[in-house]
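Example record

One chain of 224 residues, shown exactly as stored in the release files.
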Amino acid sequence: MSKLTFVERSARYTGMPVSQRAAILWSLLWDRVATKWDTLRARCLLSFWGAEYGPGLTVAGSLRCRNRGKFSLGSNAALSGGPRRNFVGGDHQTAFWIGRGAMLAIGSKVGISGTTIVCLKSVLIGDHTMIGGGCEIYDTDFHSLDASERMADGGTILSAEVVIGPKVFIGAGSIILKGAKIGEGAVIGAGSLVTSLIPEHEIWAGRPAKFIRKLAPAGDGQNK
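Predicted structure tokens for this chain:
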């Protein structure tokens, strides 16, 4: 489905009070201008940090990036977050931290809102996946599980690959931890904690996430 033009979107608000309609139209216009600026700024930031991104990247809001490994974004990715630009997820920025020798690969037509991704080994996100506001994806424990090693600021830090998608929907406020694998077309309920395997075309929710029900593959109109 093609995007609506500014005029077509404006026509939706006829019949509203003049002040409300003016506020909405001003917001639509401001969003268009601000998104162009945010996208340009984000592309400069990503290039500075050595990230690769495909055509059609759009960014609404602030973006943070620190890349010491390999970071790629497919075509037509849409990123949003930060104050004043994304109601979903509050003031959370979208942030990417890729450690030395690690790989973060995000597919095409992926939507990410106010999400933090920390990648010290490998995080793979498939095409057409949507990640809601305030989500956190970590492929590492950050610190040793042994108390004495933590106090000495050393020890073994466990990391494991995270694989998501394609066509996955992750609800707002969810946390995806090291070793998680989410199958194609799966849905993760808002506020869930995922630590293991989620089969394709299933809904899981809760802390920790538990099976809710199966979904039919996309396109057959039975997921209601």
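Notes: The longest strand covers residues 63-67.
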